[in-house]
Design goal:
single chain, alpha+beta, three-stranded antiparallel sheet, 16 helices, 49% helix, 18% strand, globular
Length: 368
């Protein structure tokens, strides 16, 4: 096992992205650490106040998101729950997820248990849901989705038939790009550090142009009926227990076109074009919709994906100091899998060398 000391004084384990000709082949990434005993004790203390009747058999920290930590709990009867905890109180993201979960009553969705704010030393926000034991597609493998796509579509159709929401996708896009705006989300000292290593202003202008392009394609998308959409599909939010698919609670539920969810998933997956066409045709057939709108929707989601990856990588490295190591792996994986797709966008192609240096600089030590 080879350890390499790199920038920021972090030791990295050698990790090779699965795609053989990946741009990130042989690069290095930091693997995640387990939760501390204090983390787990804190989560159990919260559970005792939120759900006193819940007798915990096992509890694990399964992921650390930007807005909250996620714990998986198994009770003494063998039922599973997920507890999301945020130090932001109240937490707007958890509030939107809680409201959305209440409005999505179907087997493929988590079951709402409780949401609120508690004071345990300090105020924290939480969301507790019931969800069978399942794992994200990123862990179980992309091939499972392809092999079980008819089952996936059946579950997705169940999800779509639940209570409608009022939010439009235009509102969701505004929320997404607000969260990607580095000038708003990065503290001044972090901005100064980014400026030392790369062209910060170019990053900002590049993201603004991708935002403009995304909304331009949104204005071109035409469809007769709106469907309930998850708005946040990825290899991490689509879960499976081997037979059935589940969709994690989303802060971006909206009424839009289902191809938005499919395009988001395809861009996180990075499948080939033939597979993509097969999935589009099957979704169109199952949901009885035309496939004509897909190309415009795909282009809209493509620019959004680039903006998300660039912003996410800068935040992971400079704001979180590479703490969420699995996020770095996922970002590099998505970027490498979709690099050829990204190059079809003029502004990306024109700046691809800068973007590569920006994204790989904290790993291989090259200033852009």
């Amino acid at each position: 096992m080879k350890l390499t000391s790199l920038k920021k004084g972090v030791s990295f384990l050698l990790y090779t992205v699965s795609k053989i000709d990946s741009l990130f082949k042989g690069r290095v990434y930091l693997f995640n650490n387990d939760a501390t005993a204090d983390d787990l004790a804190f989560a159990e203390q919260l559970l005792r106040q939120v759900r006193p009747s819940l007798c915990v058999r096992q509890i694990h920290l399964i992921k650390v998101e930007e807005d909250y930590d996620v714990f998986e709990i198994e009770d003494e009867q063998g039922y599973f729950f997920r507890l999301k905890i945020s130090l932001e109180a109240p937490c707007p993201v958890l509030k939107r997820e809680a409201i959305g979960t209440k409005k999505t009553l179907c087997p493929s969705s988590p079951v709402y248990v409780k949401h609120g704010v508690l004071e345990i030393g300090e105020k924290i926000s939480y969301l507790l849901v019931a969800l069978p034991f399942c794992r994200p597609l990123r862990e179980v493998g992309r091939s499972l989705l392809l092999e079980s796509f008819p089952s996936f579509l059946d579950c997705y159709k169940e999800f779509q038939e639940t209570e409608e929401v009022k939010t439009s996708y235009k509102t969701v896009l505004k929320q997404i790009f607000d969260g990607l705006n580095l000038s708003k989300v990065l503290p001044e000292d972090v901005v100064a550090e980014v400026r030392e290593d790369t062209n910060y202003d170019l990053c900002i202008n590049f993201s603004k142009e991708l935002e403009r392009r995304t909304f331009e394609f949104l204005s071109r998308v035409e469809y007769e009926n709106s469907f309930k959409c998850h708005g946040n599909f990825s290899l991490d939010s689509v879960l499976c227990d081997g037979q059935y698919f589940y969709f994690d609670s989303s802060p971006f539920l909206c009424m839009a076109h289902p191809f938005i969810d499919l395009a988001d998933l395809i861009l996180d997956w990075g499948c080939d074009k033939d597979t993509e066409k097969t999935l589009v045709d099957k979704m169109a057939e199952t949901l009885q919709i035309s496939s004509d709108a897909y190309d415009e929707i795909y282009q809209m989601c493509l620019g959004k994906k680039i903006a998300q990856l660039l912003s996410a990588y800068i935040k992971e490295v400079y704001l979180y100091n590479c703490y969420r190591q699995e996020k770095l792996i996922a970002i590099a994986d998505s970027f490498s899998q979709c690099y050829e797709r990204f190059c079809s966008i003029d502004i990306f192609n024109e700046n691809r060398h800068f973007i590569l240096k920006t994204i790989t600089e904290p790993i291989i030590g090259v200033n852009s």
